[in-house]
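Design request, tokens follow.
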């Protein structure tokens, strides 16, 4: 390894260590870490799923069930926007969350982004430094022969005083006003075909004008684990995301974007998610510009 590359590796690793030191738990925890800490005071494991039956069939010991869409407002116009403080407070209290809770989120199957969307909501409701994702999720836990439960834990309802952090999300007007800002990088987390403009199902095909393409799937390895800091930084560099810029991610409705958001945060970027995403942007007037790649235009 050359001295320059070695220095680069050390700098990135040092930055990631500093970021982890500012948190009560790492961004992403290993199965071994969780196994070692499973019975810690104030540790809360939340397993995110599409149905309670899925959770009842197999979940981590002590895990509490969270429906994937429980911290998102859906209506005839938009699918996945942040709920009100009252709705968030009610759910978190019912889950037994306290001000001191350290929360580990677990995804089942391939459902990483629905889980990082819950993670973003918890950040919005003031638990950013107290929330982590189990790297590899339930499938990795099971593949290692670790204990699985079918018993639902008894949850004692709590009383919370939430501190909302609105900085984790932004809206269409803010994005529009910052499209030409040299310190802001808009990042499209959808599959490349949607970014290019060949993906159907929307009023205007393509991407937000000037946005970079970094598909959410590129953040994960073949086992649904987060790629290393070195690999992620290489992806960001190759995508053209300058170090020091504020990264604003979007996708279809606000799930895939959250995985790229957390990769950005993990690397030390300031980051936001455009709440409403392309579902919101593409039905607006032409001043909210949409473009296709040159290959699709031809």
């Amino acid at each position: 390894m050359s001295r320059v590359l070695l220095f680069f590796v050390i700098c990135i690793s040092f930055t990631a260590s500093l970021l982890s030191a500012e948190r009560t738990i790492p961004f992403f925890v290993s199965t071994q870490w969780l196994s070692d800490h499973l019975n810690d005071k104030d540790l809360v494991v939340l397993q995110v799923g599409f149905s309670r039956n899925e959770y009842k069939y197999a979940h981590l010991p002590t895990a509490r069930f969270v429906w994937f869409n429980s911290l998102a407002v859906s209506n005839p116009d938009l699918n996945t926007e942040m709920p009100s403080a009252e709705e968030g407070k009610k759910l978190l209290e019912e889950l037994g969350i306290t001000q001191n809770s350290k929360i580990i989120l677990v995804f089942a199957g391939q459902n990483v982004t629905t889980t990082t969307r819950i993670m973003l909501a918890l950040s919005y409701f003031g638990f950013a430094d107290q929330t982590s994702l189990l790297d590899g999720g339930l499938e990795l836990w099971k593949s290692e022969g670790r204990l699985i439960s079918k018993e639902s834990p008894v949850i004692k309802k709590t009383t919370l005083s939430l501190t909302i952090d609105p900085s984790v999300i932004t809206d269409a007007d803010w994005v529009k006003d910052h499209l030409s800002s040299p310190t802001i990088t808009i990042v499209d987390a959808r599959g490349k075909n949607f970014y290019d403009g060949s993906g159907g199902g929307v009023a205007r095909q393509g991407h937000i004008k000037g946005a970079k393409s970094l598909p959410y799937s590129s953040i994960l390895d073949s086992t649904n684990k987060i790629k290393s800091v070195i690999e992620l930084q290489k992806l960001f560099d190759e995508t053209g995301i300058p170090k020091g810029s504020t990264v604003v991610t979007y996708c279809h409705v606000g799930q895939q974007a959250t995985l790229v958001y957390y990769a950005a945060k993990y690397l030390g970027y300031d980051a936001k998610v455009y709440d409403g995403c392309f579902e919101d942007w593409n039905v607006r007037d032409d001043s909210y510009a949409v473009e296709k790649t040159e290959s699709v235009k031809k």
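Comment from the thread starter after seeing the answer: thanks! Confidence is low (pLDDT under 50) at residues 1-21.
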